[in-house]
Amino acid sequence: MEALRIHEVSITSRTPWLSTLQLAASAEAAERLIERSMAMGADGAHTSSARLRCLYLGLPEGAAAPPRSKQNSRRLRIRWEVGGCEADLIQQSRRREMERERVMRVPLAEVEMLGAGSQHPVWDGAWFAQRVHAMRVVPVILAEFHRTKVHATLNGAQADLVVDTDVQAAAANAWTLDHSLEHLDVPQGCLLKMSFEGALPSAWKEIIRDLGLAPARAGKFRMALEAAGRKAGFPNA
Q: Of 155, 203, 209, 222, which one has the fewest beta carbons inside 10 Å?
């Protein structure tokens, strides 16, 4: 089996640092992984699921990548629940093999303010608007998927499992949040993401081995770019 790549991620103020591992799996394997993760987490485990949409921001097609800098290591996206009225403005910062996120929730109706170039210092999302302007990024990909999340405690530490299925995507239509998408051919059908403190829990190592899971070739954003025939991406991607 191909060597597994592990990255670290910090998620808002929930924990200082989490490591993450992305995998590809069949629907059957993903279901078994969810069941076993719930069982391992015992009474403290719980699960949630939702249909989500995500607008990925990146460089316009043909734009030259800016010089490497702390600012240009950031990646921006906006995620919301289908049928919901709120959206998460997400900034993901990368440094070597480490990642962390800053998340701010705002009314979904206010997202289009970003496209209008409106600058309202008192708006909760003003910091995000400043990042969009400074990085000169635009909507590149709109994706929709069903997400199941398991939160558990393994070996006395926080552990989260995210399973994304039925992924659809298309090139973004400016700041339009609702337009037609096409099914995205995800290898094996599901994308998994494990987040955990410290080393990969031994119980998950066993499951990965038993189910023969392999690292995901790419995430939803890169697969959607390829499917759309576009080369635009994140700064310094």
A: 209
